[in-house]
Amino acid sequence: IGRDIVKRLVEYGAETIALSRTQTDLDSLKAEVPGIIPVQVDLGDWENTRVTLQKLGPVDLLVNNAVFNVSQVIAKGMVERGQGGAIVNISSLASSLALEDHAAYCSSKGALDMLTKVMALELGPHKIRVNSINPTVVWTKMAEYAWSDPVKAKPLLSRIPMGKFVEVEDVFELLEK
Hints:
Elements (H helix, E strand, L loop, with lengths): L1 H10 L5 E4 L2 H10 L4 E4 L5 H9 L6 E4 L3 H14 L3 E6 L12 H21 L4 E6 L7 H7 L2 H8 L10 H9 L1
Helix pairs in contact: 3-4
């Protein structure tokens, strides 16, 4: 999802910084989208991530898949500049829907939704808007691997009024709103 969001932001004319753990992923993205600013950083290394992000300069919009550490650094910069900004966390319907074999995923997305609410409360007075988007299963390669079995997918699909999983394009529509 993140890769496709980067592409769309560049199409809209946004100066776009893409973070990835691997240089290979960044190189292939840069080949597809020459306008990005690629930054290799292992988000598991919190201190190096902080140092790297602080060197990036001002960020007005964060579309966030990684969340806490990245949000802290970017939000701090937004507060210090005093010009506001926006943070959009990519969450999931799984934050409020129990899915079999998804204990870690569902609970982490539930935590992300609460983090989003607390961030909105704390950062709102600084004119920083914080929201999350919570699509159902987005049809990526990972989703295809996890949900291709019709027997497994049927109970979840039966709860979706449109009767289909979300396409990556649908996520962009949520971001645009």
